[in-house]
Amino acid sequence: MNIAIIPARSGSKGFKDKNIAKINGKTLIEYAVCSALSAAKIDRVFISTDSPFYEKIALNAGAESLGLRPLSLSGDNAKSVDVVVNLFENPEFCNVECIVLLQPTSPLRTGLDIDKCLTIAEKTGESVVSVALIDEPHPFKLKKIVDGSLQPFIAGTTSEINRQNLQDVFVLTGGIYVTKKSHLIEKNSFFSENTQPFIMERFVNIDSEEDFQFLSFLVEKSKVRLPL
Questions:
Q1: Are 21 and 28 a contacting pair, CB within 8 Å?
Q2: What integer best gives the mean pLDDT of the chain?
Q3: Which of 12, 49, 182, 194 pairs with 165 at a CA distance of 20 to 30 A?
């Protein structure tokens, strides 16, 4: 059995209640649930939250809940991997093979994307994580200030390289993480030894209100489509 888990902690500081920010009348939680339910390879969808209000939104959208998170997993320092592993104590998870983590704040994914990631995981036996190619800022062009002077952020690199000669760089989109339950229990990580990339054309990871405004602009101009 493959299950999707949607982590949605309340009380974010940078952008208050970002998980329930709305675009076209739907919250980011609802878009996450929608994408999971439309994936043919997902058997069940669960919300993990510390908020009864968030839980109700997810339930109304078609997700299931095993109850609210404990306080120990509701703070700023709570890790998604610990939240997921904590759920394994429930007998509902005894027959689970793969876990798919879908963060509401990275909503540009479809059920088809999720199915493709699960197919890769099934074929390789490795974890699968969504990534996207980025042009700027390239890591070689990043600097740090040491004793008042600029130095390469990555030792031994130089920014004086033509753009076309720079190696491709990928960033985690935060949209899809797929891994085996057995691996999570053993390694406490969503990344296996040879984690496989699933490359997405475009992504927006919402950490701030400006990120959300940018996503809203892209949707309004039909540059991207959210799951229906």
A1: yes
A2: 90
A3: 194
Number of structural domains (the chain) is 1
Q: Using the 8-state DSSP alphabet, how is residue 12 labeled?
A: -
Sign of the Cα torsion 182, 117, 5, 92 reads negative
Contact yes or no for 196/126 (Cβ under 8 A): yes
Q: Which residues of 198-223 are buried (b: 16+ CB within 10 A; e: fewer)?
A: bebeebbbbeeeebbeebeebbeeee
Torsion on CA atoms 167, 132, 103, 81, rounded to nearest 10: -30
Q: Please report whether residue 31 resides in a domain.
A: yes
Q: Give domain status of residue 225, yes or no.
A: no
Q: What pLDDT shows up at residue 72?
A: 67
**How high is the pLDDT of residue 137?**
82
Q: Which residues 6+ apart lie within 8 Å of 85 measured at CB?
A: 184, 185, 188
What's the predicted TM-score (pTM) here? 0.91
